[in-house]
Specification:
Elements: H1 7-10, E1 16-17, H2 20-25, E2 43-45, H3 50-63, E3 67-70, E4 87-90, E5 97-101, E6 106-109, H4 115-122, E7 127-128, H5 141-147, H6 154-157, E8 164-170, E9 176-180, H7 192-196, E10 205-212, E11 214-215, E12 219-226, H8 230-242, E13 249-253, H9 255-265, E14 274-281, H10 285-297, E15 303-307, H11 309-328, E16 334-335, E17 339-342, H12 348-362, E18 368-370, E19 376-379, E20 382-383, H13 388-407, H14 426-430, H15 432-445
Parallel strand pairs: 2-4, 3-4
Antiparallel strand pairs: 1-2, 5-6, 6-10, 7-11, 8-9, 8-10, 12-14, 12-15, 13-14, 13-18, 16-20, 17-19, 18-19
Helix pairs in contact: 8-10, 8-12, 9-11, 12-13
The chain binds flavin-adenine dinucleotide.
The site of flavin-adenine dinucleotide (FAD) has 36 residues, from β3, α5 and β10.
């Protein structure tokens, strides 16, 4: 008998695992060494229904046992790494597409559904789910809702939270709550749905979601633009967005990131900063492409080439693989952490230049890329963890870039979330009063503090 045998009283024993292997697997995500190691959970529970989730949460809460919701584990800030042992609640078996309602442009899914599986389920109706992150093929809808993920198409369509109509959730004490509904708009009551979106498993466990869908556009065009330097590339993006060029994707990739992609994928991207673009329309898409090119011509673009559908898919594949390319570039160099700042679009060029300048000042290799149209910069200062001096310099670059983003009116995290890694920026970004309100919400919904403790909110001392 272990202390956790109560779990098999509330769910079938096949759903509870005390084995070392699964417990170890559930003690890590994609976060770097900088976040620090967490602890191994005492048990992994894999529910298959809302009732399972409710029973497990109620049983754990009444015993003061912490529960860390865990989906695909692709979060980048230590979100799913337990800090107080307890139960890792693995939602990946709740992976059904429950109901597609094409006439309403809606789909109901369980939280463990992989993002691109939503597209696969609705494509035959001429529909798609626009806000998927670059990790859409390896991460789940529950994880995306919990982090309010964004993606390459966020510049046109918005974030995950903008495409959630309703949620079924389980609170820490096991009560099942519906937030939102099926109406496309509603002004009824407090907006609980949007409070759960982005709450990183600290307020509730999502057990079902109603998602909004969109018709696949009739016309899709792609383009690639090459620039002589990063400054012109960043200026061009900022100008294009402020000129309201109607882009569906606009991604910047600097020469360092392009080199890493070439090494990892065997591609032949030129050794220069570049921007990948995609345009969606039901008519007149060529005019938008011409408009973008005209704006880019004012910023010394060296080459602006439209891409065939096939070539464009290759470019997006390269972009989606960049996270892997950065990690694989040099076995002795690790990214100290995945930077995810965003600033108002008029300050975007300044932010990009500052990160490159910091890399030069500290003599650290820093690939820069990201969802440029949202003012979102991903950057990954690289260092050898055994070289303490280099590692510290890379950490300085990482942290000074966040500080600068906040100075420019931006955010420490545009889409990855706070997790454990960015808690110390929360008060600086929102103010002590706002963080106090967040604490009161947490206390009201989870008075025993059992849901994903040690995440989002900074320690009180
Ligand atoms: C290569 C790569 C590329 C990436 N690209 C992007 C990108 O473009 N945009 C972006 O936003 N992010 C990106 N990410 C980060 C990550 O993929 C996203 O945050 C994703 O949404 C996490 O989903 P997941 O299923 O892996 O969730 P997990 O990592 O398992 O969990 C994430 C958080 O959600 C909570 N959670 C999980 N399921 C539930 C549930 N049912 N109810 C309540 N809480 C829950 C967990 O407790 C945790 O706090 C990338 C990561 C990688 C590795």
């Amino acid at each position: 008998m272990t202390d956790f045998d109560f779990l098999t009283d509330v769910v079938d024993s096949s759903k509870v695992d005390y084995g070392e292997g699964p417990r170890e697997e559930h003690s890590a995500d994609w976060a770097s060494e900088l976040i620090g190691a967490g602890v191994t959970p005492d048990a992994v529970v894999t529910p298959t229904s809302t009732e399972d989730v409710s029973r497990v949460l109620e049983a754990c809460d009444s015993r003061g046992v912490p529960v860390t919701p865990y989906a695909a584990g692709t979060a980048l800030e230590g979100h799913v790494v337990p800090v107080e042992r307890g139960v890792s609640l693995d939602t990946t078996e709740m992976d059904s597409v429950v109901d597609v309602r094409p006439d309403d442009f809606q789909v109901d899914v369980q939280p463990g559904v992989i993002g691109t599986d939503v597209d696969d389920a609705v494509e035959r109706h001429g529909l798609f789910y626009p806000p998927l992150p670059s990790s859409g093929g390896i991460s789940t809808i529950g994880g995306m809702i919990a982090t309010d993920a964004g993606g390459m198409q966020t510049v046109k369509y918005g974030k995950i939270g903008d495409w959630v109509v309703g949620l079924e959730c389980v609170l820490a004490d096991g009560s099942v709550v519906r937030c939102g509904g099926r109406a496309e708009k509603s002004s009824s009551g407090y907006n609980l749905k949007d409070m759960v979106v982005g709450s990183e498993g600290t307020l509730a466990v999502v057990t079902e979601a109603t998602l909004r869908l969109k018709g696949i556009p009739d016309e899709i065009r792609g383009a690639r633009a090459l620039f002589p330097d990063i400054d012109s590339a960043a200026d061009a993006v900022s100008d294009a967005v402020r000129s309201e060029v109607d882009v569906a994707k606009i991604e910047l990739i600097d020469d360092v990131a392009a080199r890493m992609a070439n090494e990892y994928l065997g591609t032949d991207l030129p050794d220069t900063p570049m921007v990948f673009l995609e345009f969606h329309a039901n008519h007149g898409v060529e005019r938008e492409v011409e408009f973008a090119e005209a704006v880019f011509r004012q910023h010394d673009v060296d080459e602006f080439k439209t891409a065939s559908r096939e070539r464009m898919e290759d470019l997006w594949e390269i972009r989606s693989e960049l996270g892997f390319a950065v990690r694989s570039y040099d076995p002795s160099l690790h990214p100290v952490q995945a930077g995810d700042v965003a600033v108002p679009i008029s300050r975007y060029p300044e932010m990009v230049k500052e990160i490159k300048r910091l890399g030069d000042e500290y003599d650290v290799l820093v690939p820069v890329f990201g969802h440029a149209g949202d003012g979102n910069v991903h950057y990954a200062p690289m260092a050898d963890p055994d070289d303490q001096d280099q590692y510290q310099r890379a950490v300085e670059v990482y942290e000074r870039a966040v500080e600068r983003a906040l100075d420019l009116g931006g955010t420490a995290t545009a889409e990855h979330g706070i997790g454990r890694g960015k808690r110390h920026y929360l008060e600086r970004e929102h103010g002590a009063e706002a963080v106090d309100v967040m604490r009161r919400i947490k206390d009201a919904l989870d008075p025993n503090g059992t849901l994903n403790p040690g995440k989002v909110l900074p320690d009180e001392d």
